[in-house]
Amino acid sequence: MPYSTPIENELKIGGEPMIKEKSLDFIDDKEHSLLKESYRIEIVPVEHPRWEFQLHIHLKYWFDMLYYKEAKNGEDKKAIIKIAREYVNGVRSSYMPSCPKTSLTPHPSRNYCKYHPTCVSTPDVYCNKGKRSTAPVNCNWYAEDEHHVRTVKKSDQYIILSRQQHVRNLLISPINHRTNRGLIKDTSFWEWFLGDAINKFLLIICKKPYSVERFAINFGRWESESSKDENVVECHGHFHLHITKEVVDKMEQKKDINGYAMYPAMHGKVNDPIQYGLKNCKKLETSRLSGLEIVSINQELVVLNRKLDEMDKKFDKKFDEMNKKLITFMESFSSLKTEKGSLVNN
Questions:
Q1: How far apart are CA 279 and CA 291, in angstroms?
Q2: CA-CA distance, 127 to 105, in Å (whole number)?
Q3: pLDDT digits over 31-59, tens only?
Q4: Which residues pair with 52 in a beta bridge?
Q5: Contact (CB, 8 A) for 17 and 10
Q6: CA–CA gap between residue 248 and residue 205 (Å, rounded)
Q7: For residues 273 and 143, what is the distance between their CA atoms, to the nearest angstrom?
Q8: Backbone phi, psi, residue 235, to 5°
Q9: Residues near 164 by Cβ (< 8 Å), separated by ≥ 6?
């Protein structure tokens, strides 16, 4: 569900993002309730400053709606399988992974206990105030100290983190408890995000090429996928920034006046970010498409075998008819030969 627009207009400071007006309204529509299970909003570059706004839904649910609800007959179902296969193949063919490269050694993650206010090794930033409405428990989100990309000040409302995986993906999270849904509709968040995180931080480190490859924020099960409890709802918000290789290279090399690394949390974070589209295609293929394609092929083989059997019967019938004609001809020829021999002897 793409929508192309200049990013300065789409996410302008003080403006009402289209995210609030269109994507969330579309998901909240009762007719699309199945899609609310998992969805993602992405802003990807077309040609800077023009970016494409995309709403990604779970391909499995999209397929189910078309195949099991919209399809009227077998031909419709075959057409849907064909469309899905073409989509999966198209996504795969467009994926161009980066070549492996050497980098600085990543800093290993420490171990933290489950309840930070009382543990021995308490992370500097954690959430113990926000309570989920569905359960009387604390949020329990925390930011691992070794993944702080920037030093956190007391006045900061948001934090920039690297991921545990060694990928070019920054996480933007509010320090106080807020959900992704609340975060994305908050104009003050976009003001800080574009003004501080992008213009005053990333673009200072690397201005050309543009430092961000993709903006993404997950909802539903995709939002809680990395949580200890995958079924949790209203979990602590986090916004994804896929950054360029050039940014990571410069962050790894950056040192302070004393010669210490300024961004150790980014050491080794050089691999491609998680390709959500490719990942979703794999899930569609393994959970739905491959099985139905095999069933369809088996059905076609049954039909083909039936046609071959019918052809065999027709050939057998023709062969029997020709064999009978040949026998009749041979008998006639033999009789004629006998009669001719009798005439010669006479």
A1: 18
A2: 29
A3: 666 667 788 888 887 776 677 888 888 88
A4: 4, 44
A5: yes
A6: 9
A7: 20
A8: -75, 170
A9: 109, 144, 147
